[in-house]
């Protein structure tokens, strides 16, 4: 087994797949990609509806839990993250959203303003249907219109229009605000994860790329504040691999800070308490955890043309299966969250502060409530886009195989509860319109009948993540920053962090496309520094 490479990429998710692909475009360099999970060739990954079998359980999924959340009435939250090539892009809802343009102008002082990041969104994207100055063609991430076009999902859009809300034909266009259809990261009706797009068969066969799956990286190798390699456990044995140029840490908002701390890089006092020798005091590691809190309004459906189990529905799904096999169309291509959008809870706001994901399935407790999941129904997710609440990622122990202590600190800020409350009221306005009401057999919780006090209690009883953790290795120049604006770890050489953990704050939307953008930009920087001739 070769142990010497120019670059080592830790994590084969949305960022790691991009890095491995782009760096090995240069035939003069060698790259090792280490992924803790397995391969991505499962039908449950490639067929879009297969996500329903992965998200609720520990199958190609880390299936983390949070620590008890005071803001959620001391419940533990659930944090599914992809444990497979492609990472969470292999198990997510495939929604292609970049966030609001002004979100990146918030990062402008760090050199990450909208004008800086747009070229990398364009570089990554191949948009099948939108051809304008804000969309790319020829990129490795395929972006398409849904091939499901479920009638209930479309009814949600019509109901929103009837309720007086704006319509958006492109959430990544000049105006984000509105309700409409999401574009999806799919190709020919199948999932286009970062692994599918960036690690195609021809890329995986490159002589200068080595991919090792089921390889759990346990430690960064650091000497005199220089990272020169990693240690990984493969089939029960520990191996060391060496990077002559740089190690790229792309293990995600949970994995990257965890690995830094396990390697002695973090808050010295906290590391000492766990018996870990501190190599470099960097107090921001694991701090600044931010995530979108999410509430699900659920409805039993008066139609079998949404997901659920029934004799009539079974016959319908059999026809849909035939349609998928023949044309790669229909409900088997559904990303569940086919429609939704972005709204303002107050008209004076400059940008939307809530997001809806309308799903054509009765989702309760991340689809872990099997009784609900078997019933025909649909749901509307309401999430707070820029929460004030911030949490932490800590080590549970010095054991690299132990899950970290995840504390998003959900709904600790009263402002977040207020925005959520207003968002649910807006959702209720839509769901009471005749276009969607005709499909409702019964609301599960009937939020419209609750007063504010009752609904706030219910929000704390039922809310959880919408799967967008970021910020635990934030970039910046202040004392709590972990990486520089060029994503190099402060105070060390030979080490970058390239994933959603570097976001200084949450963007107003889904985080997969922005993570890929970050890795595209980092790839260019790395090439310019080490591979330019």
TrEMBL record:
Looking up Pfam families in the UniProt record yields: GMC_oxred_C, GMC_oxred_N
- What is the name attached to this protein's record? Oxidoreductase
Q: Which family does the similarity line name? A: Belongs to the GMC oxidoreductase family.
Provide this UniProt record's keywords sorted from A to Z. Answer: FAD, Flavoprotein
Q: Does the keyword Ubl conjugation apply?
A: no
Q: Which cofactors, by name?
A: FAD
The record's listing under InterPro entries reads:
FAD/NAD-bd_sf, GMC_OxRdtase, GMC_OxRdtase_N, GMC_OxRtase_C
Q: What are the residue boundaries of the Glucose-methanol-choline oxidoreductase N-terminal domain, all occurrences included?
A: 82-105, 252-266
Q: Which PROSITE patterns match?
A: GMC_OXRED_1, GMC_OXRED_2
| Protein's UniProt keywords contain Flavoprotein | yes
């Amino acid at each position: 087994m070769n142990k010497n490479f120019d670059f080592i990429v830790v994590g084969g998710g949305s960022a790691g797949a991009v890095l491995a692909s782009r760096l090995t475009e240069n035939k003069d360099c060698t790259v090792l990609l280490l992924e803790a999970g397995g391969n991505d060739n499962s039908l449950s990954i490639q067929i879009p509806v297969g996500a329903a079998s992965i998200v609720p359980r520990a199958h190609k999924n880390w299936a983390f839990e949070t620590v008890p959340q005071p803001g959620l009435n001391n419940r533990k939250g659930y944090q599914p993250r992809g444990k497979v090539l492609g990472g969470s892009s292999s198990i997510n809802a495939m929604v292609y959203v970049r966030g609001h343009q002004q979100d990146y102008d918030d990062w402008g002082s760090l050199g990450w303003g909208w004008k800086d990041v747009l070229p990398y969104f364009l570089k990554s994207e191949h948009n099948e249907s939108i051809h304008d100055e804000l969309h790319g063609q020829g990129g490795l991430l395929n972006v398409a219109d849904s091939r499901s076009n479920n009638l209930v999902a479309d009814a949600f859009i019509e109901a929103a229009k009837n309720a007086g809300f704006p319509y958006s034909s492109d959430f990544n266009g000049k105006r984000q605000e509105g309700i409409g259809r999401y574009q999806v990261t799919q190709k020919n009706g199948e999932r286009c994860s970062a692994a599918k797009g960036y690690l195609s068969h021809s890329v995986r066969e490159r002589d200068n790329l080595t991919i090792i799956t089921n390889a759990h990286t346990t430690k960064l190798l650091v000497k005199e504040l220089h990272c020169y390699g990693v240690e990984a456990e493969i089939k029960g044995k520990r191996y060391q691999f060496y990077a002559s140029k740089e190690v790229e840490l792309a293990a995600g908002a949970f994995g990257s800070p965890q690995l830094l701390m396990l390697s002695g890089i973090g808050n010295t006092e906290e590391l000492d308490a766990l018996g870990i020798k501190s190599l470099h005091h960097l107090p921001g590691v694991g701090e600044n955890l931010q995530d979108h809190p999410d509430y699900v309004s659920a409805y039993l459906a008066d139609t079998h043309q949404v997901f659920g189990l029934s004799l009539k529905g079974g016959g319908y799904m059999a026809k849909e299966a035939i349609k998928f096999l023949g044309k790669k169309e229909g409900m088997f291509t559904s990303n569940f969250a086919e429609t939704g959008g972005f709204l303002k809870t107050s008209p004076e706001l400059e940008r939307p502060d809530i997001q809806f994901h309308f799903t054509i399935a009765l989702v309760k407790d991340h689809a872990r409530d099997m009784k609900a999941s078997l019933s025909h129904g649909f749901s509307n997710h309401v999430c707070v886009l820029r929460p004030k609440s911030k949490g932490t990622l800590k080590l549970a122990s010095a054991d690299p195989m132990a899950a970290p202590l995840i504390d998003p600190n959900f709904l600790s800020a009263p402002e977040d509860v207020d925005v959520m409350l207003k968002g649910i009221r807006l959702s209720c306005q839509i769901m009471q319109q005749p276009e969607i009401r005709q499909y409702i057999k019964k609301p599960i919780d009937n939020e419209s009948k609750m007063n504010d006090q009752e609904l706030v209690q219910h929000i704390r009883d039922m809310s959880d993540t919408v799967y967008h953790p970021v910020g635990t290795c934030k970039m910046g120049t202040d004392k709590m920053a972990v990486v520089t604006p060029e994503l190099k770890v402060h105070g060390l050489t030979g080490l970058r962090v390239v994933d959603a953990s570097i976001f200084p704050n949450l963007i107003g939307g889904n985080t997969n496309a922005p993570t890929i953008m970050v890795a595209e930009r980092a790839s260019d920087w790395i090439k310019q520094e080490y591979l330019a001739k």
